[in-house]
Amino acid sequence: MGTTLPKSATSFRNLNGGYPKRSGRRYHPLFVSLTLVPTATGTPCALTALTVGDPESRNPMLLLRFLSVCICCFGLGLSVAAQDNSATEPATATEPATAATQPAPATPENEKTPPPAKTVDDSKIEISKLKILTRPMTATELETEVRAWAEKLRKQIKSVGDVELKIKSSPSEETTKSLKSQLLELRSEESEIVKRTQLLIKECTNKGGDAKSANTYVEAVSSLKETPDAASYWVAVTATAQTWLFAEDGGVKLLRNFGVALIILFVFWIISKFAGNIVCRVLSKQRRTSMLLINFVRRTIGGVVLLVGASMALAALGVQVGPMVAALGAGGFIIGFALQETLGSFASGMMIMVYRPFDVDDFVTVAGETGTVKEMSLVSTKLLTPDNKVLVIPNKKAWGDTITNFTGCGVRRVDLIFGIGYEDDIQRAIDVLKEVAGQHPKVLSEPDLKVNVHELADSSVNLFCRPWVNTADYWVVYWDLMRQVKERFDSEGISIPFPQRDIHLQTETNTSP
């Protein structure tokens, strides 16, 4: 039995000395086929096939040869397996360790050089453009940019120092003047470099980069204390001021923003006036709208419009309005707790404006005080007394007490009381009162005039006279009728008795003997 072996294999066939010669006894020849195939790793061959024939033979020599062949094949297999393991295991076990512990040879392709700086070419690059360029950069790239700008700053400071030394050693004033002008330009450029370097340092630090050394260097060299003498100091101050003035976010921009803020405030002030007047006209056309409410709405709308304008003006100046609003909201609870009484007056003022118990120019009695309402806010009401005193009453107290409005209606009744003697003619007195009151030009014909006996007092018979007048004419009619009635009573012989008391004295006579 034979097989076709590849060229790389070795075949041992008929190990018992060739094919056995046939004899009288029949038996099958012994065939031993050993195949050694190279492994994939190129190491010594491994035993892959062994075939033995003549299973029917009973020849002792043949069996002995068969056993010796088996022993040889077994030993050969063990040796081949040992060599295979010793050749393959170190390659798989040590190669990763070797690759991990031994660095690859340094070649120009394997070396990682830091990327070149991209923003250092222009010393006066716009801040906004620089922010756009640095936004996608990583911390490593920003570190490179910071180092490049720090080096640029160092060279610029060296140039400034050279010019300062020339100024010190220059004997000519013209040369010194020229050098100072050059120094001013160099200082201005230095300030520009410092500003951009600080921006890069901030961006690098925010992204986790290491810029401490560069930051320390910039802070050390950018201080005005580093200037050697007074002349250089003032040149540095001038350069710093000039740089700040013409910077993107410097003095010119600040002045421009301030002008814009003033314009915004002026425009919104005009809008607040127009808005308040328009609202007042609309509300005035409503019948039951009080002047207090109209004035309040006008002031409120004007204040809201001005508040919006002020917030926009602050935003134009670069002030963050959001944190201010958040702070006010956070302190709202504390403010409300501290201003309980004021908030109560505020709520009472709203109730007065809604229910309108009185209005501006009404003559009222509020919280026990009488006067004309001149002004009202959400917190207090201002009264003007007849003797020209100003009273300020909190709305909480005004709303919580009785309110008497004397001018709340267009017509009022004048209540007059006149006393006559018991001996006088009552009907005659009543006719005189009707005549006097009815002839007054400010007394209204409707409702009707009422005159009658009011009471029988201790010293007189009291008659009441009740004419109706317009509210504005109340006191005029009151004073006129009091005077005219007295004059008519005198002319008609009707007395107005004084209060009198009769005293009767009783004497006791002595009847003793």
Question: Could you explain how this protein is built, in words?
Answer:
- This protein has 513 residues and is α+β, with helices and mostly antiparallel strands.
- Helix content is 53%, strand content 13%.
- The protein is built from 14 helices and 13 strands.
- The chain has helices spanning 60-101, 127-134, 139-169, 173-206, 212-221, 230-246, 251-284, 291-316, 321-330, 332-338, 340-355, 395-399, 426-438, 474-492, and strands spanning 10-12, 32-37, 46-52, 363-366, 369-376, 380-384, 390-394, 403-405, 411-413, 416-420, 450-456, 461-466, 468-470.
- The strands form four sheets. It has a five-stranded antiparallel β-sheet. A three-stranded antiparallel β-sheet has the order 1-2-3, covered by helices on one side.
- The longest helix has 42 residues, at 60-101.
- The protein is elongated and about 175 Å long.
- The model is unreliable at 1-58 and 87-111 (pLDDT under 50).
How much of the sequence lies in strands comes to: 5-15%
What would you report as the Rg, rounded to the nearest angstrom?
Answer: 60 Å
Overall helicity: 40-55%
Mean pLDDT level: 74
Shape: elongated
Helix/strand order: EEEHHHHHHHHHHHEEEEHEEEHEEEH
